[in-house]
Amino acid sequence: MTIQVYAALKDYFDTEFEITEPVHSVEELRTLLLKRNPGAEAIMPVCRFAVNDTFVDSQFQLKAHDAIHIIPPSSGG
Amino acid sequence: MDNTSHLSAVPINIAAMLEGAHHPGAGAVVLFSGETRDNSQGRSVTHLDYEAQESMANKMIAEILNEAMVKWSLKLALACHRTGRVAIGETAVVVITAAAHRREAYAANQYIIDRIKYEAPIWKHEYFADGSSEWGANAENANKGELNE
Protein backbone atom coordinates (compact mmCIF):
# COMPACT_ATOMS: atom_id res chain seq x y z
CA MET A 1 0.00 0.00 0.00
CA THR A 2 1.04 3.56 -0.64
CA ILE A 3 1.47 5.99 2.23
CA GLN A 4 1.58 9.74 1.78
CA VAL A 5 2.42 12.09 4.65
CA TYR A 6 2.22 15.85 5.06
CA ALA A 7 3.62 18.79 6.98
CA ALA A 8 5.42 17.90 10.24
CA LEU A 9 5.27 14.18 9.44
CA LYS A 10 7.75 14.82 6.64
CA ASP A 11 10.35 15.46 9.34
CA TYR A 12 10.12 11.73 10.10
CA PHE A 13 9.09 9.95 6.90
CA ASP A 14 9.50 10.26 3.15
CA THR A 15 6.67 12.21 1.59
CA GLU A 16 5.48 9.07 -0.18
CA PHE A 17 6.49 5.48 0.37
CA GLU A 18 5.31 1.89 0.04
CA ILE A 19 4.52 -0.57 2.81
CA THR A 20 4.92 -4.22 1.93
CA GLU A 21 4.54 -5.71 5.41
CA PRO A 22 1.13 -7.26 6.06
CA VAL A 23 -0.87 -4.73 8.05
CA HIS A 24 -4.60 -5.16 8.37
CA SER A 25 -5.85 -2.09 10.14
CA VAL A 26 -5.01 1.59 10.58
CA GLU A 27 -3.98 0.81 14.15
CA GLU A 28 -1.48 -1.82 12.96
CA LEU A 29 -0.14 0.61 10.39
CA ARG A 30 0.31 3.30 13.02
CA THR A 31 2.20 0.86 15.25
CA LEU A 32 4.42 -0.26 12.38
CA LEU A 33 5.30 3.30 11.42
CA LEU A 34 6.16 4.21 15.01
CA LYS A 35 8.40 1.15 15.22
CA ARG A 36 10.19 2.38 12.11
CA ASN A 37 10.53 5.88 13.46
CA PRO A 38 9.92 6.31 17.21
CA GLY A 39 10.69 10.03 16.84
CA ALA A 40 7.18 10.48 15.47
CA GLU A 41 5.59 9.33 18.73
CA ALA A 42 4.41 12.81 19.68
CA ILE A 43 2.71 13.65 16.42
CA MET A 44 1.44 10.29 15.16
CA PRO A 45 -1.28 9.83 17.80
CA VAL A 46 -2.88 13.17 16.88
CA CYS A 47 -2.87 12.48 13.14
CA ARG A 48 -5.93 11.38 11.22
CA PHE A 49 -5.80 8.68 8.56
CA ALA A 50 -7.59 8.88 5.24
CA VAL A 51 -8.09 6.12 2.71
CA ASN A 52 -9.03 7.14 -0.81
CA ASP A 53 -9.63 10.70 0.41
CA THR A 54 -12.02 9.70 3.21
CA PHE A 55 -11.16 9.84 6.91
CA VAL A 56 -11.23 6.44 8.60
CA ASP A 57 -10.95 5.29 12.21
CA SER A 58 -8.22 3.17 13.76
CA GLN A 59 -10.15 -0.07 13.29
CA PHE A 60 -10.60 0.47 9.57
CA GLN A 61 -9.50 -2.59 7.58
CA LEU A 62 -6.86 -1.81 4.99
CA LYS A 63 -6.44 -3.48 1.62
CA ALA A 64 -3.14 -4.12 -0.13
CA HIS A 65 -3.63 -1.45 -2.79
CA ASP A 66 -5.13 1.30 -0.64
CA ALA A 67 -3.74 4.82 -0.95
CA ILE A 68 -3.36 6.11 2.58
CA HIS A 69 -2.90 9.73 3.56
CA ILE A 70 -1.76 10.58 7.08
CA ILE A 71 -3.11 13.97 8.06
CA PRO A 72 -1.51 15.96 10.91
CA PRO A 73 -3.61 18.51 12.85
CA SER A 74 -4.61 21.39 10.61
CA SER A 75 -2.81 24.73 10.81
CA GLY A 76 -4.40 26.67 8.00
CA GLY A 77 -5.73 30.20 8.10
CA MET B 1 -21.54 19.27 -8.33
CA ASP B 2 -19.36 22.19 -7.27
CA ASN B 3 -16.19 22.22 -9.35
CA THR B 4 -14.92 25.47 -7.89
CA SER B 5 -11.39 25.30 -6.55
CA HIS B 6 -11.07 26.67 -3.05
CA LEU B 7 -7.28 26.61 -3.17
CA SER B 8 -4.96 28.95 -5.02
CA ALA B 9 -1.23 28.64 -5.65
CA VAL B 10 -1.08 32.30 -6.73
CA PRO B 11 -2.07 35.49 -4.86
CA ILE B 12 -5.82 35.73 -4.25
CA ASN B 13 -7.55 38.56 -6.08
CA ILE B 14 -9.77 39.82 -3.28
CA ALA B 15 -11.31 42.57 -5.38
CA ALA B 16 -12.39 40.08 -8.05
CA MET B 17 -13.84 37.72 -5.42
CA LEU B 18 -15.80 40.56 -3.84
CA GLU B 19 -16.99 41.74 -7.24
CA GLY B 20 -18.52 38.32 -7.75
CA ALA B 21 -20.16 38.26 -4.32
CA HIS B 22 -23.04 40.66 -4.84
CA HIS B 23 -26.57 39.31 -4.80
CA PRO B 24 -29.88 41.11 -5.17
CA GLY B 25 -31.22 39.42 -2.04
CA ALA B 26 -28.21 40.23 0.12
CA GLY B 27 -28.23 43.36 2.23
CA ALA B 28 -24.97 42.39 3.91
CA VAL B 29 -21.69 41.11 2.50
CA VAL B 30 -18.90 40.26 4.95
CA LEU B 31 -15.34 39.67 3.74
CA PHE B 32 -12.68 38.18 6.00
CA SER B 33 -9.06 38.21 4.88
CA GLY B 34 -6.59 36.17 6.94
CA GLU B 35 -3.18 37.74 6.37
CA THR B 36 0.39 36.79 7.13
CA ARG B 37 1.76 38.48 10.27
CA ASP B 38 5.42 39.40 10.65
CA ASN B 39 5.58 37.68 14.04
CA SER B 40 4.51 34.46 15.71
CA GLN B 41 4.74 33.85 19.44
CA GLY B 42 7.40 36.52 19.86
CA ARG B 43 9.48 35.45 16.88
CA SER B 44 10.05 37.46 13.73
CA VAL B 45 8.48 35.77 10.69
CA THR B 46 9.74 36.34 7.13
CA HIS B 47 7.07 34.40 5.22
CA LEU B 48 4.80 31.37 5.30
CA ASP B 49 4.52 28.38 3.01
CA TYR B 50 1.22 26.52 2.92
CA GLU B 51 0.79 22.87 2.04
CA ALA B 52 -2.55 21.15 1.51
CA GLN B 53 -3.93 17.71 0.81
CA GLU B 54 -5.67 19.40 -2.05
CA SER B 55 -8.45 17.02 -3.03
CA MET B 56 -9.63 16.59 0.57
CA ALA B 57 -9.22 20.26 1.46
CA ASN B 58 -11.21 21.33 -1.57
CA LYS B 59 -14.00 18.91 -0.83
CA MET B 60 -14.07 19.82 2.86
CA ILE B 61 -14.21 23.56 2.25
CA ALA B 62 -17.06 23.01 -0.23
CA GLU B 63 -18.96 21.03 2.40
CA ILE B 64 -18.36 23.70 5.08
CA LEU B 65 -19.65 26.40 2.71
CA ASN B 66 -22.73 24.33 1.86
CA GLU B 67 -23.51 23.75 5.54
CA ALA B 68 -23.21 27.46 6.28
CA MET B 69 -25.42 28.31 3.30
CA VAL B 70 -28.20 26.18 4.75
CA LYS B 71 -27.67 27.08 8.42
CA TRP B 72 -27.81 30.86 7.88
CA SER B 73 -29.86 30.97 4.65
CA LEU B 74 -26.98 32.68 2.90
CA LYS B 75 -27.25 34.04 -0.60
CA LEU B 76 -23.56 33.35 -1.28
CA ALA B 77 -20.60 31.81 0.49
CA LEU B 78 -17.11 31.85 -1.02
CA ALA B 79 -13.74 30.78 0.33
CA CYS B 80 -10.24 30.51 -1.05
CA HIS B 81 -7.07 29.42 0.75
CA ARG B 82 -3.53 29.93 -0.51
CA THR B 83 -0.99 27.22 -1.03
CA GLY B 84 2.72 27.84 -1.51
CA ARG B 85 4.71 30.85 -0.38
CA VAL B 86 2.78 33.75 1.13
CA ALA B 87 4.61 36.99 1.93
CA ILE B 88 4.05 39.17 5.00
CA GLY B 89 0.87 41.21 4.61
CA GLU B 90 -0.46 38.97 1.83
CA THR B 91 -3.78 37.20 2.05
CA ALA B 92 -3.61 33.56 3.09
CA VAL B 93 -7.35 32.91 3.17
CA VAL B 94 -10.51 34.76 2.18
CA VAL B 95 -14.08 34.03 3.24
CA ILE B 96 -17.00 36.02 1.86
CA THR B 97 -20.57 35.60 3.06
CA ALA B 98 -23.63 37.36 1.73
CA ALA B 99 -26.95 37.29 3.55
CA ALA B 100 -30.15 39.27 3.82
CA HIS B 101 -28.90 40.85 7.08
CA ARG B 102 -25.50 41.46 8.67
CA ARG B 103 -25.99 39.26 11.73
CA GLU B 104 -26.21 36.11 9.61
CA ALA B 105 -23.40 37.22 7.32
CA TYR B 106 -21.03 37.84 10.26
CA ALA B 107 -21.93 34.65 12.13
CA ALA B 108 -21.63 32.46 9.07
CA ASN B 109 -18.31 34.03 8.11
CA GLN B 110 -16.78 33.28 11.51
CA TYR B 111 -18.16 29.75 11.47
CA ILE B 112 -16.63 29.09 8.05
CA ILE B 113 -13.15 30.44 8.84
CA ASP B 114 -13.02 28.61 12.18
CA ARG B 115 -13.88 25.30 10.55
CA ILE B 116 -11.45 25.81 7.68
CA LYS B 117 -8.64 26.61 10.11
CA TYR B 118 -9.23 23.65 12.38
CA GLU B 119 -10.52 20.95 10.03
CA ALA B 120 -9.29 21.39 6.48
CA PRO B 121 -6.04 19.50 5.76
CA ILE B 122 -3.96 22.64 5.22
CA TRP B 123 -0.69 23.37 7.02
CA LYS B 124 1.51 26.40 7.37
CA HIS B 125 5.27 26.25 7.47
CA GLU B 126 6.62 29.30 9.25
CA TYR B 127 9.97 30.76 8.23
CA PHE B 128 11.73 32.93 10.81
CA ALA B 129 14.18 35.82 10.55
CA ASP B 130 16.88 33.75 12.27
CA GLY B 131 16.86 31.30 9.35
CA SER B 132 14.96 28.54 11.13
CA SER B 133 11.57 27.19 10.16
CA GLU B 134 8.89 25.00 11.64
CA TRP B 135 5.48 23.59 10.92
CA GLY B 136 2.94 25.83 12.59
CA ALA B 137 0.16 24.96 14.95
CA ASN B 138 -2.93 27.06 15.35
CA ALA B 139 -2.10 28.97 18.52
CA GLU B 140 -5.77 29.36 19.28
CA ASN B 141 -6.36 25.59 19.38
CA ALA B 142 -6.64 25.61 23.15
CA ASN B 143 -9.40 28.19 22.93
CA LYS B 144 -11.20 26.57 20.03
CA GLY B 145 -14.44 26.21 21.93
CA GLU B 146 -14.45 29.84 22.97
CA LEU B 147 -13.65 31.01 19.47
CA ASN B 148 -16.52 29.06 18.05
CA GLU B 149 -19.07 30.65 20.35
Structure, explained:
- The complex is a heterodimer of chains A (77) and B (149).
- Chain A is an alpha+beta fold and 77 residues long.
- Chain A has one domain: Beta-grasp domain (Ubiquitin-like (UB roll), Roll).
- Helix content of chain A is 14%, strand content 25%.
- Chain A has one helix and five strands; from the N terminus they run E-E-H-E-E-E.
- Chain A has a five-stranded mixed β-sheet with strand order 2-1-5-3-4, with no helix packed on it.
- The N and C termini of chain A lie far apart (32 Å).
- Chain B is of the alpha+beta class and 149 residues long.
- In chain B, helix 2 runs antiparallel to helix 3.
- Chain B is elongated and about 50 Å long.
- Chains A and B meet through loops of A and strand 4, helix 2, helix 3 and strand 8 of B.
CATH superfamily of chain A: Beta-grasp domain
Looking at this structure, what is the CATH superfamily of chain B? Molybdopterin biosynthesis MoaE subunit
Radius of gyration of chain A over all CA atoms, rounded:
11 Å
CATH top level assignment of chain B: Alpha Beta
Strand content of chain B: 25-35%
Our measurement of the CA-to-CA distance between the termini of chain B, rounded to an integer number of angstroms, reads: 31 Å
Largest sheet of chain B: 5 strands, antiparallel
- The rounded Rg of chain B comes to 16 Å
Tell me roughly what share of residues is in helical segments of chain B.
25-40%
Number of helices of chain A: 1
Q: What is the name of the CATH architecture of chain B?
A: Alpha-Beta Complex
CATH topology description of chain A: Ubiquitin-like (UB roll)
